[in-house]
TrEMBL record:
GO terms for cellular component: mitochondrial inner membrane. It comes from Macaca fascicularis. Belongs to the GMC oxidoreductase family. Residues 1-29 are annotated as: Disordered. One of its GO terms (molecular function) is choline dehydrogenase activity. Pfam families: GMC_oxred_C. It comes from the Eukaryota. Residues 106-240 form the Glucose-methanol-choline oxidoreductase C-terminal domain. InterPro entries: FAD/NAD-bd_sf, GMC_OxRdtase, GMC_OxRtase_C. This is Glucose-methanol-choline oxidoreductase C-terminal domain-containing protein. Gene3D superfamilies: Glucose Oxidase, domain 3.
């Protein structure tokens, strides 16, 4: 851990806590013309069934931001309702929205200890939107979401645009909206990079052992050298399963002939 409190760490590693990668998303909302009937809420409340009983983030998708990108770098979460401040603020209107953001952001943050008291929360600085690439990618996210919301299939439900609003059109206006409204999409990672001992930015070795410290391993999303193109649940489970095999001394199950998906064409965006 980069302490910020002096040089009392057991092993000095410049990489500890210095590459915090956190996802960031923006919300775009449309007013809905067709309100949900009261009987739908009765089904949820008394029968635990019906269309309204499903998870709000049941529909999602990945897309390439532009032609030539080898793998999808934008993620969508579609919601059939209006969610404000992660659900902490109630809403009084019928709407639907999408949470969208780049999955491979280039802005790098950091974290450090707040004090010598282990009960104190750490200081976290995500450094959101600190690179021009991230700003451009978010701008594309807004434009692509508007393209999706404009599809004919949504015409019966589509009301006015609530967020960012029809008045937000220029690149400068979109950038200002993103800076004001985009929020954390969680998935922090990469603060304890895995790498070779010769790598000064590495914190753990390929066996998950903390460099320079005996009998200590780190097995979680923090050891990712770079953030993955999606959510962290499944990759973190895979890291833990692999680490369990390493700790138990099980032989590596590796097949060099396992295919890796490659898109048939890079000339198109989708």
């Amino acid at each position: 851990m980069w302490t910020g409190l002096g040089s009392w760490t057991p092993h000095a590693s410049p990489g500890k806590g210095r590459a915090a990668a956190r996802r960031k998303e923006g919300n775009q909302e449309q007013l809905a013309h067709l309100p949900r009937p009261d009987w739908l809420f009765c089904l949820i409340l008394f029968c635990f069934s019906g269309k309204g009983a499903t998870a709000h983030l049941e529909t999602g998708g990945f897309i390439r931001s532009q032609p030539g990108v080898p793998h999808p770098d934008i993620q969508f979460h579609f919601l059939p309702s209006q969610v404000i401040d992660h659900g902490r603020v109630p809403t009084q209107q019928e709407a639907y929205q999408v949470h969208v953001g780049p999955v491979r952001g280039t802005s790098v943050g950091w974290l450090k200890l707040r004090s010598a008291n282990p009960q104190d929360h750490p200081v976290i600085q995500p450094n959101y939107l600190s690179t021009e690439t991230d700003i451009e990618d978010f701008r594309l996210c807004v434009k692509l979401t508007r393209e999706i919301f404009a599809q004919e299939a949504l015409a019966p439900f589509r009301g006015k645009e609530l967020q960012p609003g029809s008045h937000v059109q220029s690149d400068k206006e979109i950038d200002a909206f993103v800076r004001a409204k985009a929020d954390s999409a969680y998935h922090p990672s990469c603060t304890c990079k895995m790498g070779q001992p010769s790598d000064p930015s590495a914190v753990v070795d390929p066996q998950t052992r903390v460099l320079g410290v005996e009998n200590l391993r780190v097995v979680d999303a923090s050891i990712m050298p770079s953030v993955v193109s999606g959510n962290l649940n499944a990759p973190t489970i895979m890291i833990a399963e692999k680490a369990a095999d390493i700790i138990k001394g099980r032989p590596v199950l590796w097949d060099k002939d396992v295919p890796v998906y490659k898109p048939r064409t890079l000339a198109t965006q989708r």
